[in-house]
Fold this sequence. Notes:
- It contains 13 helices and nine strands.
- It has 366 residues and is an alpha+beta fold.
- Strand 5 (99-101) and strand 6 (107-109) form a beta hairpin.
- It starts with 33 loop residues before the first strand and ends with a helix.
Amino acid sequence: xxxxxxxxxxxxxxxxxxxxxxxxxxxxxxxxxxxxxxxxxxxxxxxxxxxxxxxxxxxxxxxxxxxxxxxxxxxxxxxxxxxxxxxxxxxxxxxxxxxxxxxxxxxxxxxxxxxxxxxxxxxxxxxxxxxxxxxxxxxxxxxxxxxxxxxxxxxxxxxxxxxxxxxxxxxxxxxxxxxxxxxxxxxxxxxxxxxxxxxxxxxxxxxxxxxxxxxxxxxxxxxxxxxxxxxxxxxxxxxxxxxxxxxxxxxxxxxxxxxxxxxxxxxxxxxxxxxxxxxxxxxxxxxxxxxxxxxxxxxxxxxxxxxxxxxxxxxxxxxxxxxxxxxxxxxxxxxxxxxxxxxxxxxxxxxxxxxxxxxxxxxxxx
Length: 366
C-alpha cells in the first residue's frame, strides 16, 4: 500500500444527469459537475500498475449526492500504457481533472483532456506551473454555472479582461458558444489589445476565425500576428503559443506561406521573443519549404541568418533547418559553398557542409 495522499480534483462530467441536476450540459466549456476529491488509497497491481482511488469530498457544481463517491485512475512507474497517469502522484499532490460518467453511473477519467483549446488537464500542483491560476478558473466557471442560463454570458463577459490569463481565455471561448453580433463585437474589441496575454490573444484569433468569415484575411488579424513577433512578450508564460498558432494558421487558418515567412523574418530580426521560441520559428521556416513547391524563400531566410546572426544558437538552428528540410539544387549548393568559406563558427560550418554533402549524394543517386 502507498501512503494516503490528498488531491484537489476538478471533475467535468459530460453525462451525469439526476433529479437534483436535470439540466443537460449547455456548453462544452462549462462543466456540469465540479468537485474537490481526495486520494483515498494507492494499491499496487500484479501488472505493475498502481490503482489510485479518489473520493469526492466537496461538490462545487452538481448534485450534492456525489459527495463521498469514488473514482479511480491508473498510474505506472514507467509511464507506459494507454490511459495511465504519469508521473506517479506524490503524497499531498493537488490536481485538476476531467471526469465522465458512463451509462452505468461509473465515473471515468482521461489522463489527457482539454477544458478549452490550450488548457490541458489534469493540471497537477508541483508539475503544472499554472495550477493556482487554473484553480481560480474553476471558481469562475462555478460562478457562471450557478447563474440562470440567460445571465451566464453577462457574467462571463466580465472575465474577458481578467488578470488571470486562463480565466480570460476561457471567457473568450465561452463567447464562441453564445454567438451573435453583440458577442462578436466584444471579441473584436479584444483583437487590438496588445496588453493581453498571448494565451488570450491566441484564443481571440481562434474564436474570431470561427465566428467571422472575414477575419481570416483581415488587416486586423495580420496586425495581431505582427504584434506577436515584434513586441516583447518574453515575460508571458504562454509566449510559446506564438509558434503554435502561426503554424496552425499557416496550415489551416488562412495565413499564406509567404506571409508566414515574412512574419518569421520579422521575429528573427526583432529578437523580442525568447530564444527557444525563435528556434521553433526557424524550424517552421524549414518545414514550410517542404510544404511548398518553391523553397527559395525559406532558403533565403535561413542563409541570411546563418551569415548575419550574432547568436551562435540561432545560426546553428538555421543551419540545421536548412540541412533537414530545404532541398538544395545546383545553384543553392554553389551559393552555400561560398557561404561556407566565410563562416567562422566551426559547428555551424560542419552542419552546412553536411547539408551540401547530403544534397550531392542525393543528386548522384538519381
